[in-house]
Design a protein that fits this description.
The longest helix has 22 residues. The protein has two domains: 41 residues; 190 residues, Sandwich (Jelly Rolls). It has three helices and ten strands; from the N terminus they run αββββαββββββα. Helix content is 13%, strand content 29%. A six-stranded antiparallel beta sheet has the order 5-4-7-2-8-9, with no helix packed on it. The protein is of the alpha+beta class.
């Protein structure tokens, strides 16, 4: 009888955990979202950019540490990069790149950026996204802007950024360029005019000219500073969400099914 009761309790907890994983994540802490430049969070940038399709490119832009005051001077993981459509966009839009690489680094470089790309790169440079990319906007927002940040890129490798250590440098390059159409995203017209360098050549070592900085939104999460047994999602606590992760992977054997998405090689 006791064995049956314990089995029933375990099954009930697993069922509860699975339900929690489906609907309970709404109770998780909201990530930090930082718009750069900060002053354009709720204001149209006014300098819409339209990259010419099928042209390779390389672009670097500097995000000053002063733009990350909302992080309370604590290191955070950058997990997503997003841009928003310019006010001139009038319909949903889908854009693709065959090959693109995003790099991030913490740099001592300041504005104006050097036209020599290597001069701007920090020692912790990390490739955070590499491969093909398709991004889409539903063009949601007022006619005159600003629109929602829904050109979203989920980084393959989150980048640990500490504003106390320097400014953030973002380096994007593509050999093929945008296929058929480009995003036409919002750019800052009069702010940070010397924080961005560009050239129509992904292999170039020197930029051709300065650009207005694109208005972007970065999603960041605070990493746990402790090793806590049972903390499956690194949020510094053990709760039903951790149990839900374990329940979702229950009885998966990576030796038998190594292709299972849950099996990530060490």
């Amino acid at each position: 009888m006791k064995s049956c009761k314990m089995r029933w309790i375990m099954l009930s907890v697993i069922a509860l955990a699975i339900s929690y994983s489906e609907v309970g994540q709404v109770f998780a802490a909201e990530p930090n979202r930082v718009v750069i430049p900060n002053s354009l969070q709720d204001v149209e940038g006014g300098g819409g950019g339209d990259d010419i399709p099928d042209i390779p490119f390389r672009i670097q832009y500097l995000c000053p540490a002063s733009q990350f005051m909302s992080l309370s001077n604590r290191p955070h993981l950058i997990t997503h990069f997003a841009a928003r459509p310019d006010a001139s966009v009038t319909a949903p839009r889908t854009c693709s790149l065959d090959d693109v690489q995003f790099r991030m680094s913490t740099t001592n470089a300041t504005a104006p950026l050097s036209l020599t790309f290597a001069d701007n790169v920090g020692s912790d440079e990390t490739i955070v996204y590499e491969g093909s990319l398709t991004t889409h906007t539903d063009n949601i927002g007022p006619v005159g802007g600003p629109k929602e940040f829904d050109y979203i890129v989920e980084l393959h490798t989150p980048f640990l950024y500490d504003p106390n250590q320097g400014n953030l440098l973002i380096d994007i390059r593509s050999h093929s360029g945008w296929i058929d159409i480009s995003p036409i995203h919002d750019w800052s017209r009069d702010i940070f005019n010397d924080h961005c360098v560009y050239i129509d050549d992904d292999d170039a070592l020197v930029a051709a000219y300065y650009l207005n900085i694109p208005v972007i939104q970065l999603t960041l999460s605070k990493p746990c500073e402790y090793i806590l047994a049972g903390d499956q999602n690194d949020d510094c606590k053990v709760d039903l969400l951790d149990f839900a992760i374990m329940a979702a992977n229950w009885l998966i054997d990576c030796n038998v099914t190594p292709d299972n998405p849950a099996c990530v090689q060490k």
